[in-house]
Design goal:
This protein is globular. It has one domain (2-282). Helix content is 78%, strand content 0%. The protein is built from twelve helices and no strands.
Length: 283
């Protein structure tokens, strides 16, 4: 029960980070916002881990994989923050939910996992769900929608790398290194797009880092009580907070087509999750 509680709490917190990013995107570059998300995540995570989890931190045995993991999540965040600066949070998140489908499609290549016809069918159906959301030819198919799907693609690869690191490195170390990689990479580019934030904007950027840190911290806590495959379906709970915040702050409410596509994508993702759990039990 603790695992479910912490997992749902994490997915309830993380959309607040997205809402702040969308609000700030009217004045600041989405790339600058992404950099701040990583900088302040590390800023808040370092003292938390130093004082409470110092004994649990040991250096990684897979430094290259850690760097690649950090890069994929960084690119996913850049694309997502760009997409929500133009389209609604709900639509962007719905399209990003293709991530588990991407993971399933690529797992035979990178994880040497066998994917049967049922899971391939679920991937195809989930892709159809994303097409229903964007409806190319009926509504404007813009870069923001492509970026949201790109978010799902990079996050899907991120999930694959996370699986590889699951048995070798501490989740706390993985969280910290992911933030450090993103902060370093972002620091090379952010001067090009830098706009001096006001005191209120700095406060919101710092708050965004707190939400990111807390959200991922509770995700780590949930994984201490249950396997990732068992908790995967609860990740879709994020859409509830996402829709509430989008409607309250930006007057955005998903269309019926978005709800239909979301239902199809979530159904496909949940089916894949349960099939993976079944295959693990068989092994």
């Amino acid at each position: 029960m603790k695992a479910i509680f912490y997992n749902l709490l994490a997915w309830a917190i993380l959309p607040f980070m997205d809402a702040i990013a969308k609000y700030l995107s009217s004045d600041l570059s989405f790339f600058q916002i992404t950099w701040a998300r990583y900088f302040f995540t590390v800023f808040w995570a370092l003292p938390l881990m130093f004082f409470f989890y110092r004994k649990n931190l040991t250096w990684t045995t897979e430094p290259k994989l850690q760097v690649f993991r950090g890069l994929t999540l960084f690119f996913a965040n850049v694309l997502f923050f760009y997409s929500i600066s133009i389209i609604s949070m709900a639509k962007a998140l719905t399209l990003a939910f293709v991530a588990p489908l991407v993971t399933t499609a690529l797992s035979p290549i990178f994880l040497r996992e066998k994917v049967g016809i049922r899971r391939w069918s679920a991937v195809l159906i989930g892709f159809i769900g994303s097409l229903i959301v964007i409806r190319p030819g009926y509504i404007e198919f813009n870069l923001a929608s492509i970026a949201a799907i790109g978010t799902g693609f990079f996050y899907g690869i991120y999930l694959i790398i996370t699986r590889k690191l699951h048995t070798s490195d501490s989740p706390l170390l993985t969280l910290l290194l992911t933030g450090v990689v993103g902060a370093i990479i972002g620091s090379f580019v952010v001067p090009i797009v830098w706009i001096n934030p006001t005191l209120i904007q700095w406060s919101l950027l710092a708050l965004m880092g707190i939400f990111a840190c807390l959200g991922h911290f509770f995700l780590i806590l949930s994984l201490q009580y249950a396997d990732a495959s068992k908790l995967a379906p609860f990740g879709y709970f994020e859409i509830i907070t996402n829709v509430i915040l989008g409607y309250y702050f930006f007057s955005d409410f998903p269309s019926s087509w978005t709800w239909l596509g979301l239902t199809i994508i979530i159904s496909s993702g949940v089916y894949i999750s349960f099939r993976e759990r079944s295959s693990l039990r068989i092994k």
